[in-house]
Write a structure and sequence with these properties.
By secondary structure, the chain is mainly alpha-helical. The protein has 2 domains: 2-58, no CATH class; 65-111, no CATH class. Helices cover 52% and strands 11% of the residues. It has helices spanning 2-10, 24-27, 29-45, 66-77, 86-97, 108-111; strands spanning 15-20, 50-55. A two-stranded parallel sheet has the order 1-2. α4 crosses α5.
């Protein structure tokens, strides 16, 4: 999110509005604390991009148009016969959604 904010700041934007569902990583304490600290820093510097999170109502997948894409994507990507490596999973996800695979900042196989 920091990188996205830097890119938005470079083109003169002041706010990043994100519509999130209640996925555990969206509502985690770590995420909430990071956003609060980021917004405080942006406010103090008076030139950063602030983040506004708007949570969708619980159990409302029809409001989140990405949900059907995730369902179909998972079917294309998963291999029930074995566990995929992180890089293999990333390659399959990019292929399923027709996007190029960008190199990771760290070797994700070392992290997971």
């Amino acid at each position: 999110m920091d990188w996205v904010c830097e890119e938005l700041q470079a083109i003169g934007k002041k706010m990043l509005v994100m519509f999130w569902d209640h996925a555990s990583w969206h509502i985690s304490k770590m995420t909430q604390e990071w956003i609060a600290a980021h917004n405080q820093k942006a406010r103090q510097q008076r030139n950063g991009v602030r983040i506004l999170v708007c949570l969708l109502p619980k159990k409302s997948p029809w409001l989140n148009p990405i949900e059907p894409m995730w369902m179909h994507g998972k079917r294309k990507v998963l291999d029930p016969s074995r566990k995929l490596s992180a890089n293999e999973l990333a390659e399959r996800v990019c292929a399923a959604f027709g996007v190029s695979h960008e190199p990771h900042l760290v070797n994700i196989d070392d992290v997971v």
